[in-house]
Amino acid sequence: MSRHLLRACLSWTAGWPPAVLLLLSLISASPAAGIAQETSPAKAQAEAAPRRPLGEKSFRLHVGRDAFTMRMVGDCGEATTHYVVLHGSEETAPAALRQHLQHYEGCALELVNPGQRWVSFRLGRRKYLFDPNRVFSRAGVEQNLVWLNSRFKRLNRRNRQKVVDEVEQFGQALRRLIAEPRTPGLRVVAVHNNGTQPNASFSFETFVERHGYFHNVQALHYRRDLSPYDLFLVNNPDTYEALMRRDLNVVLEDSARPVDDGSLSVFCSRAGIEYANIETRIGELDTQVRMLDTLREIWDTPGSESPAP
Ligand SMILES: [Zn+2]
Prior knowledge:
By secondary structure, this protein is an alpha/beta fold. Helices cover 28% and strands 28% of the residues.
């Protein structure tokens, strides 16, 4: 198969503080090459392992007058790979994780919020919305409350602080479940689905078209003949290299200078935790399972492991 490789270095500064250097690999490749299908020794070993019953526990997270359940599948106190599903409307992700965790070590933490991307809660006589993936810093919480609640800015300072405090405490409880106690070698994998809203514009295409979604991009590898909705976002250059060698769509986050949007990825980079995000179109269960398996084949294969950034 002929393969044309075009590498372009683009320096985009507008709207990207600080100036972001993108190494964009636009590749037209064999359509047969997709998410890795071949059986590696790590995958064969994982599939040979007996299916394990996955225990479940529930934790209550309070915010204002409301409370939400965080479901833990497996035991995060022991596991070194913590999978996290924060958006309740992304229903393929938990299903994919149940299949993946039959064969791979790890645990899943899922915020139970059926059909909803955002969390709605009551405080006093008002209702507020926030994105549970923007609660991992106070600055992120404040930005997100302003963005999602048109009346938030009209509150007096004291009431605004009260709302921010509530959401920040929710984020701290979430963070403790995800990252404490800190298992040696802990890795965090956020599992997301896109295409859950009719007008949702998230995809690699929109990113390349400069209607950017990610804030902290160091490099990206994009194959136009793969689905633009299925991609990895990672903060470890070695993991990025390994995924790029497999010719998969991947973004490397600039973990040295992350812009604080309160997301789990920024929290992990600042805390020195290796982080990956697996994005798959809603409903594409098999694809998401393959992507989860592929990441673990890379991480679990001796010699490909590397220290956290
Ligand atoms: Zn999501």
